[in-house]
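Hello forum,

I keep getting stuck at the same step: I have a sequence, I want structure tokens, and every attempt I make locally crashes halfway through. Rather than fight my setup again tonight, could one of you with a working pipeline run this one for me? It's a single chain of 106 residues.
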Amino acid sequence: MTQFTRISLQQAAELLKQPAVCLADIRDSASFNAAHVEGAYHLTNDSLVQFTQQVARKTPVLVMCYHGNSSQGVANYLTSIGYEKVYSVDGGFEGWRHVYPFMATL
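Reply #2:
Ran it on my machine without issues. Output:
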């Protein structure tokens, strides 16, 4: 059984430099609309079916929440439905915006 991997903010930034990597932001709509990492997919219960239709199971998926806790559950779920390379970003968006403010869309 495939499992997700927890990664640091720095590892996430390196992975995002590669082509065909998806960053799934699972925060609520108001938080996502206020600021998010450029190019992030807003993954919610309502967008899950569309996500699974658009993002191939072989595509590496980074899951980001507020602080890196809730993303672990979603990462685990994505691996359970067949995504092969899933990562939970430790520190979440709050950590990201402090380390990489120039990579966050406001």
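The mean pLDDT is 94. If your local run keeps crashing, start a new thread with the error log.
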